[in-house]
Amino acid sequence: MHIDETDMVSVVPILYNSNGKPFVDFKHETGTIFTVWLSREFFRAFRGLIPEGLEAYHVDGNRANLKPANLELRPRSKAKSKFKLATIPRGGLPPAA
């Protein structure tokens, strides 16, 4: 959801990076774009703060699965998924299963 300067609310689409990681972009009135990684925000909202150097990791390898039970913290260097994901163009939808 996005709220503009006139307090109008609009839906912000969920985008996916080339590795299938979901995010949303918000554009500030100055033109600066802020990227919010949904895995991190869902973990923070439902499980708590994320210490420096740790990453929210998808236990089942499905980066679209943002259920709190599917997210755990791991060191960034070890947060790579063991699952190979198809390449997805930035802003594209993940492939249908």
Mean pLDDT: 77
Report how far the terminal alpha carbons are from each other: 27 Å
Judging from the principal axes of the Cα atoms, what is the shape?
A: elongated
Helix share bin: under 10%
Brief summary of the model shown:
This protein is mostly beta strands and 97 residues long. The chain contains 1 helix and 7 strands.
Detailed description of the structure:
- This protein is mainly beta.
- The protein has a single domain (2-78), classed as Homing Intron 3 (I-Ppo) Encoded Endonuclease, Chain A (Alpha-Beta Complex), CATH 3.90.75.
- The chain is 9% helix and 28% strand.
- It has one helix and seven strands.
- The strands form three sheets. The chain has a three-stranded antiparallel β-sheet. A two-stranded antiparallel ribbon has the order 1-2. Strands 6-7 form a two-stranded antiparallel ribbon.
- A hairpin with a 5-residue loop joins strand 3 (15-16) and strand 4.
- The longest helix is centred in the middle third of the chain and has 9 residues, at 38-46.
- Residues 83-89 have low confidence and may be disordered.
Keywords:
28% strand; three-stranded antiparallel sheet; 97 residues; 9% helix; mainly beta; elongated; Homing Intron 3 (I-Ppo) Encoded Endonuclease, Chain A; 7 strands
